[in-house]
Structures are given as C-alpha cells and as structure tokens.
Amino acid sequence: MSDKVVETRLMGDVWPSTHPGEDPVLYGHVDLQPRGAFEARSLQTFKLVYTVGRYGIDDTGGIRVVFRFMGDWGDLQTHNPSAYNYVTAEASVPGSRITLHYGKTVHQRPWFRALTAKLHGGYLREGDTITITFGDTSKGSPGLQMQTFVESGFEFKVLADVCAVGHYVPLPETPYISIVPGAAHTWRAVLPSLRRPGESFRLGLKAEDAWGNPTDLAEGELTLEPSVPVKGLPKTVSYPKGEKSIVVDNLSIDEDADLRIRILKDGEYVAEAGPLLIRDGQFSGYWGDLHGQSGESIGVTTSRQYFDFARNKSFLDVTSHQANDFQVNNAFWEYLNELTAEYHEDNRFVVFPGYEWSGNTAVGGDRNVFFRTEGRQIHRSSHALITDRSDIHTDSHNAAKLFEDLKDEDCCVYAHVGGRYADITQAHDPKLETAMEIHSAWGTFEWLLTDGFPLGHRSGVVCNSDGHKGRPGASYPGAAKFGAYGGLTCFLTDDLTRDGIFECLRRRHHYGTTGCRMHMDVTASFAGGGTLFERDPNAFDNPVTHQVDSVMMGDIIQTSADKAEIKLHIASHAPIDRIEVRNGTEVVEILRPYKADELGKRIRVVWSGSEYRGRGRQSTWIGRDRFEGCQVNRIGKINAWNPERLLEQRGANTVEWNAITTGNFGGFDAWIDEGDDGVIDLTSNHGAMRLKLSDVGADHHILDAGGLERKISIYRLPEENRHREMEATVSIPLKAKGDNPLWICVTTEDGFQAWSSPIFAFK
Q1: Is the pLDDT at 434 greater than 60, yes or no?
Q2: Confidence class of residue 483 from pLDDT cuts 50, 70 and 90?
Q3: Whether residues 273 and 313 fall in one domain
Q4: Cα maximum dimension of the chain
Q5: CATH number of the structural domain spanning residue 469
Q6: Together in a domain, 310 and 407
C-alpha cells in the first residue's frame, strides 16, 4: 500500500464478517485506467475493468464501486449521455446486460457513495469482465468532474456480490489515482495578528488554485514591502516551482508598531499580509484550528498529511485532530497519539491529542475533547464501526456520562454543531466545557452560545473548520454541502505551549473568526472596580480572585457598578462593515466606521440563515434583483466560495443568483447609476420585496424568510470604504439580576465575521 493512501488497519470501517472463502482468486480482481495524477475539477474518463474470479457471478449478482462521502466530484448519472458525469457499463458475455444505480448514501460510512452494477440475463464465468466507464464521452458527455480538493490517494474501492445474495465483499486490491492542484489563481500571505516587541514571528507565503488548494505550479520572485521596518525581512524572496508554500522565519520588531506587508510579483500587487500589531503587553495572539478530520475517519488524506498541512500550508500555531469516536479503533488512537507527540513543539507548533465525542443529539450531541497529554483513555459514544469490543465498557453513552467519565481528566471540551448538533440543555459541565464552537465549515451557529446565557453558562467563543478535506486552517467549502469557509480561533496567551493554551481556554481568553486573522481587543472597565474570578465561581469552590478596575474578553467579574465601559480596538485585513456591541442577545449599539453622509451608490444584498438546527439545515436561495430606473455598473460577490454557482449580472440592471447558506451569509454589492425614482425589485424562492432606492440607507431592510434566522437584508454602503481599523468606547447598563454577557461581533465588507468571548459581569 502506498503512503499516499490511508492504512486500512487504522480505519474503523465494518465490512461483512462472513464471506464465501479466503482466497482472493475466488472473487476476481479489478484494474483502472488511466492511473496517475489529475487536476482538481478537471474533466476525465476512466475505465474500470472487473475480471470475474473462480466463483463466477450469478444472475442478479454484481459489483459495487464505493467512494468516500466527502468527495465533491460530479454526481454520477446514467440518463443523459451528453451531460456531465455520464457512466455506462457492459459485460463481456453477449446477451448479458448491466444495470447501474448510483446513490450518495447507499453504502456504509465512510464509503457512503456507491455505484452498483448488477448483472441480468445470464451469468459470468471466471475470466469474464464487467467494464464501467466513468465520464463516458462517446455520446457527447464532457466527462467526469473531478473533486475540487487535492487527495493523494483517491480510491475506487470495489466489492463483489458473487452469489447474488446482496452480500458485497471488498476485493483485496483497491486502485487509486491522485488529485493534484491546478494553476495559481490567488496568492496568500499570512502573518500573526499580535506579538510583543522583540518576539519572533514568521511570514507564510503560498499560491492557491481556483478551489483553494495550495499549488506547486507557481514560481517567481516576490517583492516584500512592509509598512514599517522588520528585522530579518528580505526585500525579495524566490518562490520555487514545486513548492506549495514557503516561510520567512525569525522576523521581529523591537517597538510598538502596526505591520502590513504588501506582496508584489513582477511589479504587480498580488497579496497583503497582516495586520500584525506589535504591542507591549501580557499576551500574544496565536491562531489555531482545533477541529478537523482525515481519511482515517470520514475525511480524506492521511492524518500525517493533515498535521503537515496545518503547520506548513496554513501556518497555524495550534491544532488538533478530531475523528468521530465511533470510528476510532484502538490502532488509530495509538497512532494518533504518536503523531501528536511527534508534531508538538513548544513555542513553535502546539498539538493536542483528542477526539470528537459523536453522540446523537438525542443523547447530548457533538463534543470535542482535548487532552493536555498523550496516552489518555478515549471514552466513545459507541463502538458503531469498531469490531474490537474489548474496551466497550469505557463508552460514555450520553453527554452527562461523558462529563462524569472526564471529571478527573486534564482536558477541555467544546460543544459544536456538525451533522449532529450539541444540545447544551441536556448536559453541560462548566469545569470542562468552557467554549462553544459557533462557526465552522458547516455554517454559523451563534445560538449554540446564546442558548446558554439564560442557563447561566459562561462559555467562550471558538471557531474552527470541522474540515474533512485535509486542509485545517484553510478549509474551503468546494462544491459540496459545506457552505462556509472554515473558522479560526485566536488564543491570547503568554506563551505558545500546551500549558499556555489550556490556561487560555479555561479563562476564555480567545476569540473566533470565520477564517480571517483580524486583531481584536475588547476590555471592560467598571466604576469602583470589582472582583475578578480566575475560574467560574458557580463551578469551582474558592477560586483565585483579584480586585480589578478592568477585565479582558472571557473574564468573569462581580461588580457593584451600574454600567460597564466597553473599549474595543479592531484591526482587520479588509474594510469594516459594522460592529455590534451586545449584552447577551441584545444589540446595544451598532458601530460603523463611516458617517451617513459617506453612503454612496453601492447597494448590498445579503441572504443568510438556515432551515433548522439539524442535518438538513442547508437553505437554497434562488433569486433575482432588478434595479428599475437605474443601471448596474458592476457587482462584487460576497462569500461566493463556489464559482460554479450562479451569481451574475444579467444585462444592464439585473442580478441573478442560486446560492446556499447553512447559518452563514452570502450576497453581492451593486454599484449603480441611481436615478431619482430608482427601485430595487427582489424576487426569490423565499419571498419578495420592493423598495425605493431613496429609502435604502445604512439600516437593514429585512425580508423574513422563516426557518432559523433566515432572511434577506438590503442596505447601503459607501462607494469605497477604506476603514480597516476602529477604536471605540461604549457604555452598557448592567442588569441587576443574572449575568451580563458583554461581547462584540465584527463584520467585514468581504464577508468575514469575528466574535469576542463574552465578559461575564454580575452584581
């Protein structure tokens, strides 16, 4: 087996326990042509030839070709020979015919996708063949659309039902191909967001193809133009072909500064890194994505490739691997712990061993478990896909039992929303579960945090990818059901160590974003001061306390003050749309970096929300905006991650779209020639609205589309907004009873968001 393909022994798949014999000659063998490397989202044709074994194949028997669920290659079809992804099959024996059936959830996890080829009208002897053509172009089909993301070992796993009993046995050999990146489409430059004077930092550089894959096809000399002098930064760097990323390391600045670095190639601007703020203070900011999976569970690529990508391709400081527990066999758990120990390096790259407790929502729902050290006992939700039942007595069958089993462990827990969602009303341990994951590639889920406010939960905000494509820290949705770009968390801590990150988690000194690396500083001051608790006094007896006048995000404070003065500082990669200052679920104030008289002839249309909280949360948006009495000069797309989905200007005054949201948002800006009687006429599959353009200002006009916070918003922006930094102070009255969760949400013009962990103030 190649090291490009996940080792079978590390996968928790459960195959049939009975079969008609041990000798592989009995079942036949399979060949695939062509083999080799193929560009992501290219069009291809493959012939898979199955040669019948000694048992033969009886009438109505056949073979099944199964694929990983996460693949977003084109859906196979048999009805339209001139369309994409046409597939055909034939048997070598005259008079026999093959019927094909394709389904996305036909087989078992992770091989959900399956093409079943059944024999009818005869039988096949040893040496006869069944030939399947994927992307058959003989009748006009363009071919098979390859998946959008890189995978070194994309497998065509074949199973045979030789006795026509509906019992498919996997063949011992599995052919595979490699999916490789395309040409360079976008350059990326990555800096941290907060360091202290004299502290070392690095600049990461890479080129990505049109689907977000780091590509090895880019090359050239890059010019680096910093906004302030940087020790160790060269004027130019050579980017060699064959590399998917490079790092300029051991950089530093000795005094307070605001750094952005412009990247030029052949004299043309291609990217900007930053902002990086150099500030003398208690903490630095370290970026992490602690939630993703590889091919040993439901994802793709190997777990070693996963950790390599996190460190060297997305330039993370912190990561973890989180496989669904019911698929983590003991061999993989041992191997994963070996990998985390190998990759972890204090002050360079912090890695935590852990897993995803994947109980159904009915028993509490998804949790991420992170251990400080290797070698700890895994407490699974079940052994659903694990044949070794020797440790089944260690299972935690519901979330309450999980917290009980972990009570003496040195670990942290996140609640999150994936296929299953966490139900924090069923179980919550404030000692262990200190954060809620409110954004991932699955979408945006503020409700997971806010549901806890009336319950007295004091949880911080984290965002991660929950990516299944082997790209932690840079998780693009591609063309699959995942509708959002993966999130990131910034950990504010004194040092980049496991101890430092764990203390940060336990005090909620972190904030989350939908994938950007903005700087965020949020503090609160109180007249007369108050008592700061290092641990939640509702959970811990006699926690360490301090008398303070002000606190930072995530802190818990008891005060006699009637109001809090919230001071915030945001420095972003992109212009700031707005900042919401909140007390719990109440938006106390909306801050914008521009004034009303700066609003121009730019109209923003945004769709957002989801169907409901469960697996089928995806909302489809099909719509049209007609600008009557004016002309659309150009449009700009927002969160349009899938270039194959419709979002285009039609003619002089119309924009049409076909998009999805999963709790997140997307949309467009239209720069218009506005007349005195201009009207925006919007129609969609979720309703319609008609507005005079003269009535559209900074405040949002809302079309309520039902579902879960599902809506369309229309508002006006400046024609050009250059404000990428904001400072403000906001006074918030404090409620006399219960907690006052004081937090902010930042939205940038290019569609990213960020949330501070709440400050929990009470009297």
Answers
A1: yes
A2: confident
A3: no
A4: 92
A5: 3.20.20.140
A6: yes
Which sign, positive or negative, has the C-alpha torsion 609, 611, 613, 617?
Answer: negative
What is the per-residue burial (b if ≥16 Cβ within 10 Å, else e) of 344-363? beeeebbbbbbbbbbbebeb
Q: How far, in whole angstroms, is CA 214 from its chain's centroid?
A: 16
Same domain, yes or no, for 263 and 332? no
What type of residue sits at position 229? Answer: P
Q: What is the dihedral of CA 495, 313, 304, 1, to 10 degrees?
A: -170
Entry field: residues in the chain = 763
pLDDT tens-digit series, residues 326-359? 999 999 999 999 999 999 999 999 999 999 999 9
Answer yes or no: is pLDDT of 1 > 60: no
Q: Are 647 and 660 in contact (CB under 8 A)?
A: no
The answer to whether 226 and 207 have CB atoms below 8 angstroms apart is: no
Rounded distance, CA 608 to CA 594, Å? 24
Instruction: Tell me: pLDDT of 61 over 50.
Output: yes
Residue 78 lies in a domain: yes
Q: Which of 22-31, 411-420, 482-491 has the lowest mean pLDDT?
A: 22-31
Q: What CA–CA distance (Å, rounded) separates 593 from 728?
A: 10
Percent of the chain at pLDDT exceeding 70: 99
In the numeric block, the tokens 């965020």 are attached to: 520
Stated pTM of the model: 0.96
Rounded CA-CA distance 446/381 in Å is 25
Q: Which two tokens stand for residue 91?
A: 């048997």
